[in-house]
Amino acid sequence: MAGDINKVVLAYSGGLDTSIILRWLQETYNCEVVTFTADLGQGEELEPAREKAEMMGIKEIYIEDLREEFVRDYVFPMFRANALYEGTYLLGTSIARPLIAKRQIEIAREVGADAVSHGATGKGNDQVRFELGYYACNPDIKIIAPWREWDLHSRTHLIEYAEQHQIPVPKDKRGESPFSQDANLLHISSEGKILEDPWQEPDYDLILTRMVTPMAAPDHPTEITIDFEAGDPIAVNGEKLSPASLLAKLNDLGGANGVGAIDIVENRFVGMKSRGVYETPGGTVLFHARRAMESLTLDRGAAHQKDDLMPRYAELIYNGFWFAPEREMLQVAIDKANERVTGTVRLKLYKGNVIITGRKSPHSLYDEDVVTFEEDTVYDQRDAEGFIRLNALRLRLGNKISI
After folding, report:
1. Between 378 and 223, where is the model more confident?
2. Domain shared by 288 and 203, yes or no
3. Which of 23, 80, 97, 327 is catalytic?
4. Is 154 a catalytic residue?
5. Which of 37, 128, 334, 386 makes a 20 to 30 Å CA pair with 349?
6. Does the global pTM surpass 0.85?
């Protein structure tokens, strides 16, 4: 099998694990390795990844800023659905994988590679998300998943391998890491080690990097406005921003006010439960603001239909089916519903809370003349009697039969 691989594109972070994978690919498959590092807003300097790849003899190195594409073409379409996995998770890691997978396949075509590789373990969801994305973009691609092949199954083994192959091991990697983190512009996830016991309270002072705790947030609220157009946010406090800049702005505002940290136990696609702490400050603010905007502009039937579709849509993304035809079908319906979701939402951020204080839209379906408790001439309250009697008919008939 090793002889079948001539060139492989590796999703490369520059960290210890993917540096070990890089050398392992060279040794095991005797192949040329191309590294691809995606800037999705993880907040890290990426040039060290280039330097480390060069040090390890890599000739073709791709480091690309994909932040705008990530937010515009992946995060925002997902948010139009108000997607929540199992009612709590805003899918921050899940939505990043299809973009990385797509670009890896594109690079593989550009450089003539016959395989791609990733650093996801054999227990998690990411291996599924990456590989479903690979196959969707190139059905014939060869995939190398080192964690399912090699015998380096402990931190000690990894460090020993690194030392044997002159791969620098940072001092903070020699001890057991207290938890594992994955970051992009939408969220930061923390899982494993000290977080594996679901009864153990997380040490938020140790874990959180993008936000303060609600207890440490200011004692006064921050008031902001968000403008929407066709379901997507376009401005904060009246300032028009690009998708990535807007999400970064909301991260700053939400994070400073302790908004967006959750501690959840979720059901992984592979069958096990996992516990994690996720911080999604900007996404949490955006989620609540979008719901407020929709409440004013969506017809009841359309709004309820969207809510019915959402769990299935969220599950598809969580499980790695971003490129599946059923997700694309749902997206068409979701985008259609968002055509008139345009206007402004006003809200306050205060100690972990997102408080909606106002909303307005040129497409508002809210009619003060109809809903007023004062005297009006547009609604005949006597009409309600027939409405109620018709809706009660089956209940009355059923009760007679049961008696």
Report:
1. 223
2. yes
3. 97
4. no
5. 334
6. yes
Q: What are the tokens at 271?
A: 């069958």
**Mean pLDDT to the nearest integer, 26-35:** 96
Annotation marks residue 97 as catalytic: yes
Residue 233 lies in a domain: yes
Residues 158 and 27 in one domain: yes
Which two three-digit tokens encode residue 245?
């800049």
Domains of the chain: total: 3
Domain that holds residue 315: 181-360
Known catalytic membership, residue 367 = no
- For residue 156, the model assigns a pLDDT of 83
Same domain, yes or no: 139 and 223? no
pLDDT score at 24: 96
Q: How confident is the model over 285-295, as a mean pLDDT?
A: 98
Residue 151 known to be catalytic: no
Reported confidence tier of residue 372, pLDDT bands at 50, 70, 90: low
Which residue of the set 39, 126, 227, 232 is catalytic?
Answer: 126
Could you say which of 72, 177, 180, 295 is catalytic? 180
Q: Are residues 338 and 386 in the same domain?
A: no
Domain harbouring 223, CATH code: 3.90.1260.10
Over the stretch 265-289, which tens digit does the pLDDT of each residue have? 999 999 999 999 999 999 999 999 9
Q: What is the pLDDT of residue 2?
A: 53
Structural domain includes residue 367? no
